[in-house]
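FW: tagging you since you asked about this chain on Friday. Here's the raw sequence from the shared folder, copied in full. Didn't touch anything.
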Amino acid sequence: MEQRARTLIMLAPPTEVESVVKDIRQLAGSEISSVLPEICKEYNEKHCVAFAHEDKQVVISEYASVGENEYICPREGLIVKVDHMSHKVTDARPLEEDDDAEYVELADEVYKMAKESYPAAAVAVYNLEDKKVIVVSSDKISAKNFYTGSLRNVYIVANGAVSGSMVGVIHFYEGGNVQGEVDKTMPETPAPTPTEVVRAIRRFEETSISTVGSALTDINENQFKALRRALPITRQTIDWPKIAHDHVATQLGSMAM
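HL: got it, structure written out here
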């Protein structure tokens, strides 16, 4: 039962994991309750889920973990303790400021890029012992068109180079249940300075957009159409090129508030 629950939760669509967990609890009862927090933690870290805290968004990821359910949030200057089941921050305390000049410069460059490209996304830059890690996390809910989506980008900066990945997930649920995932890998690219790191990331993301758009179009024109019809109940077409080409940010990157 535990393995089945883990499989279902790890496959939960963007923004819908809490509903999946609720259904599993109703079906399995107390038999499964004790392992759900750990499975939810695994899901949240893998998908770099962002939790709301006051007027901020804090990214939950393996790179940020500093203790039992505790995570550093460098941009917000906090260490937060979270409840992985409810997606709530239960405690917060100040994080000591990092004065590593190279890290500070990289973080500034990344946050400027994010403000332009992902204005509503949660973004974090971590200064780890042997590398620096950049995480971009964003969700999109469009109830009237029956879909949810997420975007998570993770980049590793080490030894004068940057590498990483862009993962987009979209879920359609009008009269069917289709979930698609697009995963693009950024090969190790020389980038000895923070400015060059950001420039390399921009180039990678720009060249990846067309692939993301093609994949989403295939889901709409083939998989989803086979289940029901091209138009949702609202009779509004889903504009896949726009979703893909708005720098992935304004569609998959704008969070519904």
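FW: The first strand starts at residue 50 and ends at 53.
HL: agreed, and Confidence is low (pLDDT under 50) at residues 247-257.
FW: great, closing this out.
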